[in-house]
Amino acid sequence: MEVLAVAISNSCKDGKTSRAEVRRLLPKVKLTNSILGLPIAFDNDGDLFRGPKSGVTLFQIQSDGSYKQIAKS
To answer: What is the dihedral of CA 28, 1, 60, 38, to 10 degrees?
Structure first.
């Protein structure tokens, strides 16, 4: 959520936003220290490529409402 919130905030800098703009900016958000206390970043496909080393499990909510585990440490 923190990555998404930063992408939304960045998209609003010009006073307007759209889902497409947030989606475009999402892979550009690289948190060196997230609210989890760990770095988090996603690639252009929305897959985790920099994340926690231990103690955290991240899930992605699928279009059918199910949860898919994307990282476990």
So the answer is: 70
pLDDT digits 0-9 by tens, 14-48: 899 999 999 899 889 988 888 777 788 877 777 77
What does the DSSP assignment read for 4-24? HHHHHHHHGGGS---HHHHHH
Percent of the chain residues past pLDDT 90, beyond the cut: 29
The beta strands (E) that lie in 1-73 are given as: 30-31, 40-42, 48-50, 57-61, 67-72
